[in-house]
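Attaching the record inline, Q. Sequence:
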Amino acid sequence: VKLHYGPLVAALLAAPSAHAFAPPSSTVVVNHQQQQYSPLSLYKKQECSTIPTTTTTSLRSSSSNINPYTSPELDTSALLKYATAAITELTLFAATFQLLDVAFTNVLDTSVPFPFAFLLFYGCSLKSRVFNPLNNQRPDRSKAVDGEGSSGFKDRVMPSWTPPGVTFPIMWVLIIGPIRAYSASLIVSSTGSFLCLPIMAFMLHLTIGDIWNTINNTEKRYGAAVIGVLCVVLSAANAANQYYAVDPFAGKLLGGTLIWLCTAAALITDTWRLNPSEEGLVPLYPVVGEAETSFMWFGNNDAEDE
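Structure, as predicted:
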């Protein structure tokens, strides 16, 4: 195959040197010529049907050729929407728990059955996002098991030590979810109430996790995702501490989930390192132009769900 080096040499002379952490580029065919393609060239539009769709769906390769990282500006609109979503989700959780307390105390005049509390909190652990107005989709579970890419998993350059896709649903559905549900049920049994400080600390943890999924999976803000996942870890530690003050065993159980969360934080941080922009590492805050934050409740949503 005859290679045409003219365009490649010209590009190398005109562009700055590639970032040290730049992922390997691959060869694609454009106008019957071989050219080099790399994730770092997402801002340069190319009319080529052979480029994988996962690269063209990146929010950075939008309708504009402007690189948002040349002069990064804090996306205050996104921060405001994240805060609004958090307040909305926590308010809905508090209202739901208040209604349950009234139902069991004043109407049924009985204590909360442990199985009921367990199923409720297990559902909250897996589907808390139903109370969040943002699009906080998770990676597609079936695709992850098959090793295929989806939003938030293998749709970017991933660290070589990334666990197999089947690991994630096993951890969240069969281990983390039951631990969360059982420890929260212990707290309700001890306090006799759903609406209490330890349970709301746990809901705060789930809320931050939902917003982080929006940042990492939907918007693909690799820098902001690092700060987001650290907030997820800290909120889990705070909830475990609140649990421990009521029931030490429940606190230790929830604290055990920090092992997995810290592993996830390391994975997200390494992913950020491996996905730089043309200007270098992406800023650790939401940048204007890298994505658009919108409320899923007030518009059409074609994103995939779990």
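The CA atoms of residues 216 and 225 lie 5 Å apart. Residues 5-63, 301-306 have pLDDT under 50 and may be disordered.

More tomorrow.
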